[in-house]
Amino acid sequence: MEPAILAAYDRPVPRYTSYPTAAQFDSSVGPEQHANWLRDLAVGEAALYLHVPFCRQLCWYCACHTMAMRRDGTLDAYAAALEDELTLLARTVPGFMIGSMQWGGGTPTQLGPSRLRAIGRLIDTLFDRRCDAEISMEVDPRHCDEATVQAMADLEVTRVSFGVQDFDAAVQRAINRVQSFETTLATLERVRRAGMTRINVDLVYGLPSQTLETLSRTLDLALALAPDRFAVFGYAHVPWMKPHQKLIPSETLPDAAARSAMAALVSERLVGGGYLRVGLDHYARPADKLARAVVNRRLQRNFQGYVAGDPPWVVGIGASAISCLPAGFSQNAADPTEYMAAMGRGGFATVRGIAVDVEDRLRGDIISQLMCRYTADIGETCRKHGTEAAAFLATVDGLAPLVRDGLVSIHGGLLAVTELGRPLVRSVCAAFDRYYTGTEGRHARGI
Question: Is the pTM of this model over 0.85?
């Protein structure tokens, strides 16, 4: 990527796992509105997301809502709060149908086998579930023994996501996550022996002390694990949001040019290893459901990343969990103590969100197309949302520079992101974001 392009587009931009993004959420949405919005799901189905904000120890690179927690009393109380919220959901939406389910975090398995099984039994009691529903769970390979794996099998988990990030010892020390290849492989084999053969591996580039050489070795080892999917994210250095990231000196981080080269290396190596590139940051084997969704144009993007034609709506359970509902987005209290207190009062723990209007739906549709397909049919999308295309495009001030710099092309109402522009697709999406200001200290950088 040319230095001029790097300089022009190395700026904070959202990851666009939703539109409007979580940066636009405010306190106008609370428990009562969340309950009313949930009732719109009385007919149909949704994905269920359960958030466990605890890990065995805190990794310094992490930007998730999580904390180190091992106290049984707190884990018991949190599991009980999850059960309370699930029961309240069942009362609010009788006949709620689970189209897919994801256990995320943090590290969901930090709850321990008995608590996981109890929550799983309650879910089966309260809700119907599609017979082909995918159930996925994130794991820390360093803390996933036979008892944990058996509990996952009892929960009928079908896909397991392994947090790896990087295999280089110096990088691991710099992010406070020491995890050998041998440990990761042993856990992966344990999971596969238990019948959970759909495997994801998560990697991160742009980490402290990471170089092209160390990243190349990590990719060699990661490919040797032979997962079905990779998710490879650029490190988001947001110490103003996550104070523990201040433990990572900014001078140890690769610059924009190095990050761009790392992203290119990841794509080259994984595609060369037989994986199909899926959107901005995922890779999948050609036979995988996610890869087929690209071909069938059923790829979607939500707060969990790219998903393969799952239900468009997501109900989030747990501290900080976000629900994507027909009327808008709603988010639970992020602090586990506040979340548990709210559930103890007998109502939902919703503290913020945003209602979605007609213009949001139009812009969100375009952004989703760009993130999933690198193209957007502006004319057809505007017609679908009752808007005149020429008038709408006249409001998109940031489009002309993208065309001038060769990042996008427009022909007959079809906007296409060029090969040069694909690594910068978030910046392309930002041109259609009516809330975006480019303010420093709000989002991670786009390169």
Answer: yes
